Inverse folding.
């Protein structure tokens, strides 16, 4: 569920074949503002379309849903609930079906990560995150941990071939809007940033190939990156955290 400006938005229907349902209600009274019951079958002939496979976010007058492997991120008109995309042919998977959506710097949607049915510890999966501009989509980073950001800082882990990385939000957006990737890059915004010397810092100890050798998983449960108004941090369920304005220091007892 997402609540914004007195309106609560929520979706149901994990399998598009069985139908997908989106609702907007008054957050105080529960009065229905709109509903959309048709997007699970955008392609009515094969009963394929959008699924409720993750969270919701809002961007530029649109409600955006992590919509499964057909259409994701899936945009809807915020005021009417009208679906703003058309059906895709043949019903084969065509989208990053990760469970997370967000808006980087208030400008570009980000979607991807772990699928809905996966272990919370599955952070080094084959999944990835993508940024979606008006004309194209770009892979931001590999892995299952969502990137964290605020107005000044982006922090991410590029699991396939990278490190725990921190850089300026403005430089990330600049790269996303660039027409061509950096020479010698490996196909992600994260790797491009290192080629163009846009990295604020990187933590070398996260380069361990085994998750057991990295402090992110040395704690009893997986850590979660998040962003506050003043700094980015890495937080784990026990309450300890590391500010990402500088590389995290080695902790006594770490295994790496």
């Amino acid at each position: 569920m997402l609540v914004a400006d007195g309106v609560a938005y929520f979706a149901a229907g994990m399998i598009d074949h069985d139908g997908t349902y989106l609702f907007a209600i008054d957050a105080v009274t529960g009065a229905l503002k709109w509903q959309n019951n048709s997007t699970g079958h955008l392609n009515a002939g094969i009963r394929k379309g959008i699924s409720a496979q993750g969270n919701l976010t809002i961007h530029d007058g649109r409600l955006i849903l992590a919509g499964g492997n057909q259409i994701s991120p899936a945009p809807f008109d915020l005021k009417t609930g009208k679906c703003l995309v058309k059906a895709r042919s043949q019903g084969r998977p065509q989208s990053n079906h990760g469970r997370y959506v967000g808006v980087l710097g208030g400008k570009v949607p980000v979607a991807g990560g772990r699928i809905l049915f996966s272990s919370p510890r599955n952070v080094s999966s084959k999944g990835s995150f993508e940024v979606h501009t008006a004309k194209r989509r770009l892979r931001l980073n590999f892995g299952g941990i969502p990137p964290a950001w605020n107005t000044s800082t982006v922090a991410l882990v590029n699991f396939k071939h990278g490190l725990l990385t921190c850089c300026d939000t403005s430089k990330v957006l600049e790269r996303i809007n660039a027409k061509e990737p950096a020479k010698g890059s490996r196909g992600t915004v994260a790797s491009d940033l290192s080629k163009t010397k846009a990295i604020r810092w990187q933590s070398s100890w996260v380069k361990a190939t085994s998750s057991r050798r990295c402090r992110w998983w040395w704690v009893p449960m997986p850590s979660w990156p998040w962003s506050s108004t003043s700094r980015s941090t890495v937080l784990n369920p026990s309450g300890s955290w590391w500010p990402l304005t500088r590389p995290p220091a080695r902790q006594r007892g770490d295994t790496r």
User: Anything to note?
Assistant: The longest helix spans residues 169-177. Confidence is low (pLDDT under 50) at residues 205-233, 235-245, 250-256. The longest strand covers residues 7-12. The radius of gyration is 19 Å.
